[in-house]
Amino acid sequence: LPPLSPSTTILAVKEMLTERTAVLPKRQKILGLTIKPGCGSKSSMGPPDTCRLEDLKPKGKNNINSPIITHQFILMGTPEEKIFVDPSEKDDLPDVIDDFDFDFNAGSDEW
Q: Which of 51, 96, 98, 109 has a beta carbon 3.0–4.6 Å from 47's, enabling a disulfide?
């Protein structure tokens, strides 16, 4: 991602990631970001969407002479078009005839 303002929220970062990955923010799990003490509640799903980048603990190797803080993280999620939907939960599917119980032989009168 490009350099971001310290006041950028996690939700804004997730929206930027959506443009690159097609994973909706509600499906994104960001691993590796830690909130500074006193800046919100800790969650197994990562920092809350309202958390700002300045509220995160810096990790990794940051250049001491540079004011830029780098955050490294792992994004987990599935693009919406690749999510399995159970056909029994859909109403607009065509009727399917189950013909596995029929015993037809190729070339028979029933065929």
A: 51
6 closest CA partner among 66, 41, 67, 53: 53
> Using 50, 70 and 90 to split pLDDT, how confident is the model at 39?
low
Mean pLDDT of the chain: 82
Lookup result for tokens 């970062």: 13
Contacts within 8 Å (CB) and 24+ apart, 65-73? 68/3, 69/6, 71/33, 72/32, 73/30, 73/31, 73/32, 73/33, 73/46
Reported pTM: 0.67
